[in-house]
Amino acid sequence: MVSEKKEPSLLDGFKAFLMRGNVIDLAVAVVIGAAFTKIVNSVVEGVINPLVGAIGTQDLNRYSSCLSGPCKYNQETGEVVEGIPIMWGNVLSATLSFLITAAVVYFLMVLPMAKYLARQAARKAEKEGVAEAMEVSELEVLKEIRDELVAQRSGTTGPASREDGPGTTGPQPPQG
Question: Staple 85 to which of 40, 64, 70, 143, CB 3.0 to 4.6 Å?
Fold first, then answer.
């Protein structure tokens, strides 16, 4: 007898893919990322760019050099009529926008979140340290109780009658 294994259908595989937790997490991250992009862009355009514009020019895209001959532009459309312009202002503008956006994201989101997580980790470590200290003190109390019980059995009192440590004195319990 040959048993036939039924392969999952295409629709079943798609359902399983959608029901994974990481797909939902990814979707949430994309939506939050899109909303956060609006915040970052508004900070860059509303605060940072005017500050940069106060120092220099507001439109870096106009900076260019001509590769061959003098560049002549059509006054109405702004298109190049003669020459080969190198629009290095566009590159500079995109680079500054990237750096400004990265700085805003780092200083307004990444750095505060890292500090928050570090504080949480320190609190957790502190709680674990207290619990560990309590376990150690409980262990010491149990050792003392054991020593007292051993001492009572042997007829002496005090921690000097421990049978597992150096300096053991007094009669030992019968072996056997």
Answer: 64
